[in-house]
Write a structure and sequence with these properties.
Blueprint (H helix, E strand, L loop, with lengths): L1 H18 L1 H8 L11 H8 L3 H22 L1 H7 L2 H12 L7 H13 L12 H16 L23 E5 L3 E8 L1 H10 L8 E10 L5 E6 L1 H9 L6 H12 L5 H18 L2 E5 L3
Antiparallel strand pairs: 1-5, 2-3, 3-4
Helix pairs in contact: 1-2, 4-5, 4-7, 5-8, 7-8, 10-11, 11-12
């Protein structure tokens, strides 16, 4: 076990030495404890490495990390432009590489970028929306709470008697996003390779659904459907969900009409695999 820990610390120290210019400078200048987990013998070994090759390899490692980010977060990278590479050294120092897959790298960079939004990054105004969108796509594709559900061969049946017997909730590999800008316009500009001159600011609700084939289906839904989906929860019965919808949409449809509309919507979304219907008491 101690040999494993020793090897892990050696790998950590080497990664830090290669990815953090300040740590590398501290080791080469023989400053005290630049790498707390690296013993004197290991620091001596690091200093013996060829400096030109080490510097070149360090730049290649950073390039490799940022290539993964641009591949997994294309809209975010496009929105940042040159600032992506200006942020790269700081990201490299603050977030040493831990996992090799691009989705892990992208989520780590997204977490770092969120700390910059607002105080340091306020342009373009739609940057937060594309970050929110691309992170959601990564999460439901690679890290869902469960596998995507297949569409039901036949529509489930629900009646008014089921209002207090069923709890609807969003199925795994589904996500509802509330955005402030027109993502379709942003995506169209991205496909054409043209920077958007001025993206329309409008409220947009986007339902993302991972499919069994590994694709992402996305549908823009109206505010009423978004309210219904947002109210669905393992703690609420269908009757309680409809009550929440009625309060948020007031004034809205008459109670009887609202009940019928919500029942029909619930059946449709359950058939698509967007909602899971659980019997109360299960």
């Amino acid at each position: 076990m101690s040999e494993r820990v020793s090897e892990l610390r050696r790998q950590q120290a080497l990664a830090r030495f290669l990815t953090d210019p300040l740590a590398r400078q501290a080791v080469l200048a023989e400053q005290p404890d630049p790498l707390p987990w690296a013993g004197r013998e290991l620091r001596d070994q690091l200093r013996e490495l060829d400096r030109k090759r080490t510097s070149m390899y360090s730049r290649l490692l950073l390039l490799n990390r940022m290539t993964k980010v641009t591949d997994a977060l294309p809209l975010v990278s496009w929105a940042l432009g040159q600032r992506l590479w200006e942020l790269a050294p700081e990201y490299n120092r603050c977030c040493p590489p831990r996992r090799p897959k691009k989705q892990h790298e992208a989520l780590a960079f997204a977490g770092f970028l969120r700390t910059k939004l607002g105080p340091e990054l306020d342009e373009p105004a739609w940057l937060a929306d594309v970050l929110h969108y691309e992170v959601a796509v990564l999460r439901i594709r690679f890290f869902p709470d469960g596998p995507p559900l297949p569409a039901l061969p036949a529509a489930p049946t629900l009646s008014r008697e089921d209002l207090h017997r069923v709890r609807p909730r969003l199925s795994p590999a589904n996500c509802l996003l509330a955005l402030d800008h027109d993502l379709e316009e942003i995506g169209a500009c991205f496909e054409r390779g043209e920077p958007p001159s001025r993206v329309q600011q409008r409220q947009m609700f986007l339902l993302l659904q991972a499919t069994l084939e590994g694709n992402i289906r996305q549908d823009e839904v109206n505010p009423a459907v978004a309210v219904f989906l947002g109210a669905c929860s393992p703690e609420r019965t269908l009757a309680e969900v409809i009550g929440q919808v009625a309060r948020e949409l007031e004034p809205g449809s008459p109670p009887k009409t609202l009940h019928e509309e919500c029942l029909a919507l619930c059946v449709l979304l359950a058939q698509r695999g967007v909602l899971t219907l659980e019997a109360v008491g299960r």
